[in-house]
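User: Um, any thoughts?
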Amino acid sequence: MKATAKLKYLRMAPRKVRMAADLIRGKNVKEAQTLLSFAAKHSALPVLKTLNSAVASAKNNFQADEANLYVSYIAVNEGPKLKRYRPRARGMAYEIQKKTSHVTIVLDEIEQRTAKTKKKAAAKEISGASVSTASILAALKPRFRPGQEIQKTKERQGGMPKIFRRKSI
């Protein structure tokens, strides 16, 4: 079940609206509504209205519980630009672009997973009746590969790594 809400031709630059969208990406609906209602961004209000519209759509069309919804996808795309002109020096006219945005929010339901965890799956893979947790954790631990080497940064006396050098040695 995916409930979608779209807001088109919002008269704000997409770059500014994306800041509000990044706040709520992947969050559950209640937390997202709280974040947007207290955000100090001008673009938070239209995004909040679109989110509320998606929640209402999910309740009405899919009989979804608001507590089980989360923001699975949010995108802010560029809409058409309104072109205006300003007078400049020596009789010239400079173009001003008034940008618009399209906001798309998709909500999905949190599904309770009954799948077994990695530890239980690893325990079944390891043969033998008596398997300790230490052997399970050892099986799940990532192994060092010979091609991978850890690079150490050169540290100065103060303990801070030197990032910029004028001359290469």
Observations:
- The chain has two domains: 2-109, 114-140.
- The chain has a mean pLDDT of 83.
- Strands lie at 2-10, 69-78, 82-87, 93-98, 101-109.
